[in-house]
Design a protein that fits this description.
Blueprint (H helix, E strand, L loop, with lengths): L1 E4 L16 E4 L14 E2 L3 E4 L6 E9 L2 E9 L15 H4 L7 E2 L4 E5 L7 E2 L4 E9 L10 E9 L7 E2 L1 E4 L4 E7 L10 E9 L4 E12 L1
Parallel strand pairs: 1-7, 9-16
Antiparallel strand pairs: 1-4, 2-8, 3-4, 5-6, 6-16, 8-10, 10-14, 11-12, 11-15, 13-14, 15-16
Amino acid sequence: MTETAKETAPMNAAAPSRWRRKVNLAVSAAVAVLALAGCSVSADVVAYDLPAESARYSLRTETGGVETVWKYTSDRPAKADTPTSQPCIADVLVKDPGPCRPEPLIFLRYDLDLGLDNTAEADAFHSVTVTGYYQERLGTPPTVTRLRVEASFDGGRTWQPTSTRPDGRNTFTARIRHPRRDKAPEGVALRITATDSAGNSVEQTMPKAYRLR
């Protein structure tokens, strides 16, 4: 039995500061519809049985227009991999669930460095910082090794790559060249793809990340 924990936060959850507004985006996997046998759902988790052999899985969710697609490798755990202080929820919800562990899903946290009105300066370079993280329950999480940020100024019809550099553990900073405001009337959309050392990946698309001023 493996489990996918609910990790979700509103797009503007952080309190505004004078300098920046930090945006935490992590899409809830609990509302996803899984085409897997034996799926059981609670308000906080999706738990499901897996074949014993290792296999590749894909999980897609959409929350508030933000689409997230995870691709990861999993198998049936031979033993439980959860801290004693945070027991597996399946032990409570499912009778005799067997060994349980969290899935190695990459979640993304953003610092969009926006003004108090949730906008960024047009016709200028702008930096966006993205940090990958995992459920705290995961015993030994992988390391995010690659991250790609693409920006769109026409509502997602076309995408432009950005210059991205490592900026700490699991953290990357992208430098985006904003056009004039009239060239991006729908604001800025972002598409982020992250890959970790175990080959797991996540692609998250924000069709309306922020507007230009």
